[in-house]
Amino acid sequence: MGIEGIASCFFDYMPAFQITFLKGSLSCRSIRHRRRQISFKRSQYTHLTVHFTMLKKLLELLSSFFSSLFGKRETQPTLPNSHPDSGTDKIPDFLEDSSDVPRDTIITVNEEKLEIPQPSNPAPGPFGDEDKETAYEDKTEVPTPPGDSTKEDEDKPSPPLPDPPKPTEPVTPPQPSIKARYLWCLDNGHGKLQPGKRSPVYVDENGKQAQFFEYEFNRDIVERIIKALDKKGVQYYDIVPDYLEVGSFLEERVERANKKKSDLDKIYVSIHSNAGPTASAKDWAPDSVKGIETWFAYNSKKGQKIAAVFQRHLVAKTGMKNRNLKSTSEKPLYVLKKTIMPAILTENGFYNNKSEMKELLKDSVRQKIADAHVEAILEIEKNGI
Question: What is the phi/psi pair of residue 324, to 5°?
Fold first, then answer.
């Protein structure tokens, strides 16, 4: 739109004047006066140009005024990994979770065929470790019965009986603890600010529209795991407690884990829920697309063994379909490739499978998933890897 068009639009809303420019002619009408039409001569164009310049400056002042009131919309250049709150934070040649991996590049491994050290004849009790179970048992010695007494001993007067003990407060035995072997870096995948990573809209039991948000599920599982590990004395590092303030946060997750100082060897566990391929984000995946799978970095032997232990416990505890272990060599998952420690990523059911999504909303199912992670952690703590 040229200056003539801007002026026309502007003065349409002025209470006193309306100006219309048509091929070098200017029509001016006053609400309080009769309409007059004046034809300008070529010699008067110079004077008209002065008015155009003044009008342009007026429009610039008005534009600046309205910008100060309502803000100015600016187009920012798209920068790779520009800010953790940007949502997607996609990184070239790396993927975020299994739903991003092309199907024809996935390598499937049957964890049952791997040689994993299994606990043999575990001791009873919460620790499965004999020396821990008996560490706080009552060790009070029973007095040795006296031998044969002689006549002389019988004639001796008996010593006076001690005063009965005064009642005291009950003493709580010290809680047993395990000797930590690893520092478990726990990563709840995704953040609240990340677009996508949610189910299609559905109607809940209260008749209201709702969605399953993966970031909420992932964090809930991690918090349940943390609660159990606190009781067991297992060392862990909560990587993303600020999940409500971030999006994808890929590089920062890995950086936090890599820079975490620890005298223990570190193991990285990223927890997710899966999504199957669909025509659009509004569509549900087929009911055949369901189950649990665990990912490891390609050619990582330790990662593969750790993944096998977790997959075995997850399938046994939840009864979900076993989708085995997964890996890829072409476009690896970022958190598995860039961590400087053995790392795995668990995919716990499909949130865009409508029937499985309803199961993942249940507290009992979530607790089973968390318990399976804890059992896998305790097994590796005991046996090593």
Answer: 65, -170
Helices (H) and strands (E) in the chain, counts: 10, 12
Cα 112–Cα 115–Cα 119 angle in degrees, nearest 5: 95
Does residue 210 carry a pLDDT above 60?
yes
Write the pLDDT tens digit of every residue in 257-266.
999 999 999 9
* CA–CA distance, 258 with 321 (Å, rounded to integer): 33
Question: What per-residue confidence (pLDDT) applies to 10?
Answer: 45
Q: CA neighbours within 13 Å on the CB side: how many for 168?
A: 6
- Region label for 140, one of left (φ > 0), alpha (ψ between -120 and 50) or beta (otherwise): beta
User: In the Cβ-directed half-sphere of 371, how many Cα atoms lie within 13 Å?
Assistant: 10
Q: H-helix or E-strand containing 312?
A: helix 301-318
Residue at 112: amino acid letter: E
Residue 302 corresponds to which amino acid? K
Answer yes or no: are the C-beta atoms of 191 and 213 closer than 8 Å. no
At 366 the three-state DSSP class reads: helix
Give the separation between CA 212 and CA 358, rounded to whole angstroms.
9
Which residue's structure tokens are 């006549």? 151
d(CA 21, CA 149): 135
Question: What residue type is assigned to position 103 of the chain?
Answer: R
Q: Which two tokens stand for residue 63?
A: 């534009």
pTM: 0.61
Instruction: Kindly provide the b/e burial profile for residues 189-210, where b requires at least 16 CB atoms within 10 angstroms of the residue's own CB.
Output: bbbbbbeebbbbeeeeeeeeee
CB atoms within 10 A of CB 345: 26
Alpha-carbon distance 347 to 271, whole Å? Answer: 7
pLDDT-derived band at 100, boundaries 50, 70, 90: low
Phi and psi torsions of 334, nearest 5°: -60, -45
Q: Which residues contact 127 (CB under 8 A, 6 or more apart)?
A: 133, 176, 178
Reduced to 3 states, what is the DSSP secondary structure of residue 127?
A: coil
As a CATH number, domain 98-118+175-383 is 3.40.630.40
Kindly state the DSSP code that residue 135 receives in the 8-state scheme.
T
- Distance between CA atoms of residues 268 and 382, nearest Å: 17
